[in-house]
Write a structure and sequence with these properties.
37% helix; homodimer; four-stranded antiparallel β-sheet; NADH Oxidase
C-alpha cells in the first residue's frame, strides 16, 4: 500500500450496498450440522486460514494454532469423544426436554469433508504479553476472533461451518497430540451444506428462540 | 422469508466481488486508539448492537450483555482503572522494551465518544445449557463473536473500534454496578478514527510484526 509523505494511506470506504450485503452475511451465517459429502477443493482450508490470520489478536500475538485433521483414526477418535460427551449431555437434560435433545443433530462429524481443530498457544512470546496482563483470557478470545473471521469467509463462499463444543478438551489434545500448553478452543466441521437457511436450526427445531437485541442492552 | 412446501428458503449467494470486499474489510478492520471527538449520530451504538445480536452463540443462548456507559463519573473511574493497570504493565516490561511501551497509545478512552462495556451472563437459562456442558467457556466465546460482528459492521460504516483489555475486571464490574455473576469480556471505545490504516498500529510502531498464516498451520 502506497503511503503519502505524512505516512498515511488512502482509506478504504465501504458503501451502503456492501453494508447491506454484510448484514445479509451475518443473517445467513449459520452453524451447519448437515453436510454433503463432496470433497473440498484442494487448498480450501489453507485459504480460509489465510483469511483467519487477518483477525485481530491481543498485542498482535497471533495465538491461533490451526490443526487440519486428516488421519482417519484420529477423526474416528474425535467422533467417539463427541458421542461419549453427548450421551452424558443427554442424560443431564431436564426430563421435559430430553426427547427433543435426543432428536437434535448437533454435529456433522460423519459427513463433513473438512475437520479443523483450533487451539490457543498462551505461551507464545509474540506480542510480549501486551494487553493480556490483567486479562490473560484475551489470548483465547483472539482465537475466537480468528474462527469467526473464517466462518464468515466460508459462508461467503457457500461453505458451511459447524462449531463442535460437545467434546472433552483434554481428550482432544491427546488424540491430536498437540504441544503441552496449547488450549483447545473449538473443533470445526467444514463442507457444503445440504441446505441453507437464515434461521438457526435450534430455532427451527423448537429448542430455543432468538430474543431481540433490546433485551441485551443496558445503560449506565 | 418465504418458505416453499418443503420448508426451504431460497439461499443467499455471495459473488466474487463481495468476497473481495469482505477480504478488504478484514484487512482494514483495525484496533483504533486515536479518535476524533465528534459525537456519534443518535442511535449508532444501538444499531451496532442490533447487528451484534445476529452473531452465533452456543445453544442459541445469546449471553452478551451490552452496557452503554454514558455517566461521566463512571467513565472517569474506568479511565483511572486503565491508567493504574497500564502503570503496572509498564513496570513489568522487559527493560529493552519499556521505553517503546511507554510511548504506545493503547486506548482512546479520553477521546472516543462511544463507550461500551460487554459482559457475558453465564447464568442465563436461555439455550438450556446446550453445547456448554464440557466447555462452559463457550459462553464467553459467544460474546467475543458478537463483539467481532460489531467490529466489522462498525468499520464498514467508517467507524473505529478499540478493544481495551488493560483493565481490572472486578473493578469494571464495581464501577458499572452490573449484576453479580456477569463476566467482563471487553471495554470498547467507538468513534471516528483520526486516520485509517491497513497495517496494525503495533506493527507500525515497531512493537510486533505479523507472521504469515503458514506459521500457524499444522496437520494431523
Amino acid at each position: 500500500m502506497q503511503r503519502d509523505e505524512a505516512g498515511s494511506v488512502a482509506p478504504c470506504a465501504f458503501g451502503a450496498p456492501f453494508r447491506e450485503r454484510l448484514r445479509q452475511l451475518f443473517v445467513w451465517r449459520r452453524d451447519v450440522r448437515r453436510f454433503r459429502r463432496d470433497a473440498l477443493p484442494e487448498g480450501t482450508l489453507e485459504r480460509l486460514i489465510d483469511l483467519a490470520a487477518l483477525a485481530p489478536s491481543v498485542g498482535l500475538s497471533q495465538p491461533s494454532r490451526f490443526v487440519v485433521v486428516k488421519d482417519a483414526a484420529r477423526r474416528a477418535a474425535i467422533r467417539t469423544c463427541y458421542s461419549d460427551c453427548n450421551k452424558e449431555a443427554l442424560a443431564a437434560q431436564r426430563p421435559e426436554k430430553a426427547d427433543l435433545y435426543a432428536r437434535l443433530k448437533l454435529a456433522g462429524l460423519n459427513e463433513a469433508p473438512g475437520h479443523l481443530a483450533v487451539f490457543a498457544d498462551p505461551e507464545t512470546r509474540q506480542g510480549d504479553g501486551l494487553g493480556r496482563r490483567t486479562m490473560p483470557e484475551t489470548i483465547d478470545y483472539s482465537v475466537v476472533l480468528a474462527i469467526h473471521t473464517m466462518w464468515l469467509a466460508a459462508r461467503a463462499e457457500g461453505l458451511g461451518l459447524g462449531w463442535v463444543s460437545i467434546l472433552d478438551p483434554a481428550r482432544v489434545c491427546e488424540i491430536l497430540e498437540v504441544p503441552a500448553g496449547w488450549h483447545f478452543i473449538g473443533y470445526l466441521c467444514i463442507g457444503y451444506p445440504q441446505a441453507e437457511d437464515n434461521t438457526p436450526e435450534l430455532e427451527r427445531e423448537g429448542w430455543e428462540r432468538r430474543r431481540s437485541a433490546s433485551k441485551l442492552l443496558f445503560y449506565r
